[in-house]
Amino acid sequence: MAVFANHFGSLEYLTAEGILVPHCFTTRYGGVSTGHFDSMNLGQGRGDSEDNVNKNFHILAGALGVSWESLVLTRQTHSNIVRVVTKADHAGLDHRGYPECDALITQDPGTGLVIFTADCTPVLLWDPVTGAVGAAHAGWRGTADGIAAKTVDAMVENFGCRPKDICAAIGPNIGACCFQTDADVPEAMIKAFGSEVERFVRFDGEKYYSDLKAINALALRRAGVKQIELSTDCTMCQHDRFWSHRYTRGVRGSQGALIVCR
Fold first, then answer.
1. pTM score > 0.90 for this model?
2. What range does the domain containing 195 cover?
3. Which of 16, 37, 230, 242 has its CB 3.0 to 4.6 Å from that of 169, i.e. a possible disulfide?
4. What is the CATH number of the domain that holds 67?
């Protein structure tokens, strides 16, 4: 199974073949934002107009056939906090109005979960047995802190999910081709996951390159998830198609990963 592109007019978004509820990983294409936010920016507080961001959410919700008023957002701080939510937790389309967390889970039909990325790793989860869904934002710190597996654990604890039933999709992020760091990142990964993770780290004599998609997939497998689909897209290589914090040096919008409970 694969993660592949979909088009709805000028809107482009990615979906995973194995997840059969409304969901997506957005790209930069298909919104109304202008200038260096051109055009599908979902992040408030970066200089884009509130009206443009709201219109972009409405376009995306319409394409997926969901209500924008049922979306619950994240105020991300690279934490390991997982929130259990329902549509009653909707607090508008500005993520800054939400409690701190980097992952959301729900079993409330109609509720949509939204996390934001611009190089970090988005993870979407769906349990076809219980109907529960989850969404996690995994930067390198969150990856080392096991946010993906903690989201699975929270679905087990709160909704009675079995990890082997859960379908996971890992969306576009900064790939191992471009995620250049000092030793602190691979050291954090090895401390968290042991020597098995060393095969996902490359050293070129000066810098390290870590494959965060593969490391998050490892964390999910260790949590008992069997079906995991990975995007092959790198946000930095394809900075014209995806928002990349590194490429733009922070002058950017945000893409979203969204999943709806059915």
1. yes
2. 3-260
3. 16
4. 3.60.140.10
